[in-house]
Amino acid sequence: MLLNKAEKLLMNNPLRAAVQRYYEARRLRDMGGVMNAGHALEIGCGRGVGAEIILELFGADRVDAFDLDEDMVRRAEARLERFGDRVRLWTGDATAIQAEDETYDAVFDFGIIHHIPDWRSALREVYRVLKPGGRFYADEMFERFLSHPVARALLNHPREDRFDHARFAKALEDSGLHVEASYDEGHFGFFVAMKTPDGVRRPAE
Ligand SMILES: C[S@@+](CC[C@H](N)C(=O)[O-])C[C@H]1O[C@@H](n2cnc3c(N)ncnc32)[C@H](O)[C@@H]1O
């Protein structure tokens, strides 16, 4: 689901970039460690701050990144031009990722999955494109935030079948992604999950 005007303003500004860089990304790095080279994917890259962080803070060699919104992809292209062929961008949908199976050492989600009506299919796609032993780093907004009257009045999100920390963690495990670390703030939360090294899907508990 595309952002409305209010959320675009909230996302495309230096304060949002600072929160992403100095709070969200650092917490995810502390939970899951850095990549030390390797090939990363960012789903829902917005204007490209996340890809910058994945290269600079997580130490990826290369980042592929896409967003449903062509306008966001154009902004990311301008921002990330200086990285040359270390970054590849396209317009696309996280429920049908345009990549071969087992392509990536890590996949990053900076707050996009709560925008997707069928969010479980995005998790299945993350599982598919990760290499065995690869990690999924996610920060996500929970139903408690999305259903707040102010959020409902200002922002546009799917309303059915949303998740809290426990539900998102269970869906990760159901997709075959083993949750190694997580943090629940109540309104939002952080997850680091690994595709089991043998690539075997774990049964749901
Ligand atoms: C809340 S913004 C976050 C943007 C960026 N990751 C950040 O942290 O600043 C959510 C982004 O997800 C994108 N998006 C929504 N649904 C998507 C989908 N199905 N596939 C890919 N991107 C999607 C939106 O266009 C938007 O750029």
What is the spatial order of strands in the main beta sheet? 3-2-1-4-5-7-6
The geometry reads as globular
Provide the low-confidence segments as ranges: none
Please report the number of helical segments: 8
Strand content: 15-25%
CATH class: Alpha Beta
Major beta sheet summary: 7 strands, mixed
Structural class: alpha/beta
Rounded average pLDDT: 94
Number of strands: 7
> Helical content, roughly?
25-40%
Distance between the ends: 30 Å
Domain unit count: 1
Give an overview of the whole structure.
It is a single chain. With 205 residues, the protein is of the alpha/beta class. Helix content is 37%, strand content 25%. It has helices spanning 5-11, 14-32, 49-56, 70-80, 119-129, 143-146, 149-154, 165-174, and strands at 39-43, 62-67, 87-91, 104-110, 130-141, 177-184, 188-195. Strands 3-2-1-4-5-7-6 form a seven-stranded mixed beta sheet, with helices on both faces. The longest helix is centred in the first third of the chain and has 19 residues, at 14-32. The mean pLDDT is 94. The site of S-adenosylmethionine (SAM) has 24 residues, from helix 2 and helix 3.
